[in-house]
Specification:
This protein has 98 residues and is mostly helical. The chain contains three helices and no strands.
Length: 98
């Protein structure tokens, strides 16, 4: 049991030594990297960009318009069925009157 404790202590000590040996990145270098990343960032995925907002608005409008388009399609289908039924009924009535 003491062997495991000793191993654990040595491992943690080595880990802390490695952490302390890493120097922090200078702020100027971080800013340069951020500028480069911002240039190559896909603006369609950037919530702050106009392109993203425009695409979001279009998607919401399409989502709102979809039920209306579906209703129009169903209404047209129903109108065609009604016309076909009325045409068939008027044809039958003409045949029965002759």
């Amino acid at each position: 049991m003491a062997c495991y404790f000793l191993f654990f202590f040595v491992f943690i000590s080595a880990l802390w030594t490695m952490i302390r040996s890493v120097e922090p990145t200078p702020k100027e270098q971080i800013k340069k990297i951020e500028k480069k990343l911002e240039k190559c960032r896909n603006q369609a995925n950037n919530p702050d960009s106009l392109e993203y907002k425009r695409a979001l608005i279009e998607a919401l409008e399409a989502e709102e318009a979809e039920p209306m388009i579906k209703y129009a399609r169903l209404s047209e289908e129903q109108r065609r069925q009604d016309d076909a039924y009325l045409h068939a009924a008027s044809s039958l009535s003409k045949l029965s009157t002759k």
